[in-house]
Write a structure and sequence with these properties.
It is built from nine helices and two strands; from the N terminus they run βαααβαααααα. The chain is mainly alpha-helical and 249 residues long. Helix 2 (27-40) packs antiparallel against helix 3, helix 2 (27-40) crosses helix 6 and helix 6 packs antiparallel against helix 7.
Length: 249
């Protein structure tokens, strides 16, 4: 039987689910914040969705040593690959908040991002947010850039360049990358071999890279236009918006 510890790892997992349980039934509000960020440029609003999408299938668990022989306290957890002593310091909060507020998402997976972003969403959860016609136009153009791309085009160059030219959409390369990574975490951009956390838990800390120097997150790192979009996942997240029905029908 694997030994379990009460440790900083466990406190971090506990805090994650304290925040997630507060918003577990607020998926549609989180999506509204995401869409509303497209015209307003509010990058914090845009960042709530990837945190929610990742946590949705993340396992509730206690630390389980990955070392079956010598279960040292500093071994990573067998389930999530986070060290037992990987606590979340109060001074780290603003660090992760600032990064997400500039990037519009989670640039590189870390559970700390999810804790911070779900906490921030819960502070705003009662705010009335309704995406505008401009938001719908921008998101439609983003999705058309993906579904209309030819098999010769690449996500990281051609499609990013096209998205960055969308009228009324103020973005930069990092923000566009984070937005596309969010669609990956949501399961909309994935491949047959590289599935997203939409279906079940994926240990993003150990997920493969398309190349050793890639700075894109799994699974969108592997996505190509020939993979198409996951229409089931799209409808799950954006099914309340009939103006996007062509992306799930």
């Amino acid at each position: 039987m694997n030994q379990q510890y009460t440790c900083l790892h466990d406190k971090m997992i506990e805090e994650l689910f304290i925040q997630y349980d507060k918003c577990i039934d607020k998926k549609n509000k989180i999506v509204s914040f995401f869409l509303s960020s497209l015209s307003t440029g509010n990058m914090l609003w845009r960042s709530f969705l990837p945190a929610f999408a990742i946590t949705r299938t993340f396992p509730r668990h206690h630390f389980v040593s990955s070392n079956e022989v010598n279960r040292f306290r500093d071994d990573p957890c067998k389930i999530c690959n986070i060290d037992s002593g990987a606590g979340f310091e109060n001074e780290d909060y603003n660090f992760y908040l600032e990064i997400a507020s500039n990037a519009g998402g989670i640039p590189a997976f870390s559970l700390e991002f999810c804790i911070v972003l779900l906490t921030e969403f819960n502070k705003l959860a009662n705010n009335a947010i309704e995406p505008s016609c401009t938001d719908a136009h921008i998101f439609n153009e983003i999705m058309m850039s993906l579904v209309d791309a030819s098999s010769q085009e690449t996500l990281k160059k051609d499609i990013v360049k096209r998205i960055n030219k969308i009228q009324l959409f103020d973005t930069n390369k990092t923000q566009t990358q984070c937005l596309l990574q969010t669609l990956g975490f949501c399961g909309i951009l994935e491949t047959a071999q590289h599935k997203s956390p939409f279906h079940e838990y994926v240990n993003l800390g150990l997920a493969p890279k398309k190349s050793h120097n890639s700075d894109w997150e799994y699974p969108v790192d592997f996505w190509t236009p020939s993979d198409g979009i996951n229409r089931e996942a799209f409808k799950f997240w954006f099914g309340n918006y009939i103006q996007f029905d062509k992306f799930w029908e």
